[in-house]
Amino acid sequence: MEILDGFSFKEIVTSFMVLFAVIDIIGSVPIIVSLQQKFGKIEAGKAAITAGAIMIVFLFVGNKILKLIGVDVNSFAIAGAFVIFVIALEMILGIEINKTTEAKAASIVPIAFPLVAGAGTLTTALSLRAEFHDINIICGIILNTIFVYLVLKSAKWLEQKIGDATLMILQKVFGIILLAISIKLFTANFAQLVLNYVNF
Q1: Residue range 4-41, pLDDT digits in tens
Q2: Looking at the 3D structure of the chain, how many domains does it have?
Q3: Membrane-crossing residues (predicted)?
Q4: Domain containing 21: what range?
């Protein structure tokens, strides 16, 4: 099959790690536990599948939307780099730039969207298309969906075992990784954008 031609284990691992860092489901455990206490039982399967579906649909439809409004993937990837940069700063410095609002239902809103498949995640998924093959990004999304499901199912247990201090350390480590990724995305796509205009 043509879609399998670009299959790469390295790209799958990279896509998984990038999306894993942006989603930051481990760092969201305290939020998930709080929502569980407030709204009752969280449907882990429903939330994970919805989030995964949103990411995969946007991966393909998002590009068509960009073409419709006359924006190329490289420009969007640069915008995505700025979004990832802001998310990384939030994680490293422990500040809140993007304000979130409470919702009446927990499984779909706000867990599936925007906690898991939020603006940062969707932007990152589409930005990855500028460098990676679709099949590898889809595999990365599916692996993250499975991981999100497992975390949602065992949120209380994870909070007890990991502890606030470890969660904070993990958050800052992934924040630094995201910062490096945002810089790489920006430089690579900015260079490509300049080349496109020069060739034009």
Answers
A1: 667 899 999 999 999 998 888 887 777 777 677 667 77
A2: 1
A3: 12-35, 47-69, 75-95, 107-129, 135-152, 173-195
A4: 9-95+106-194
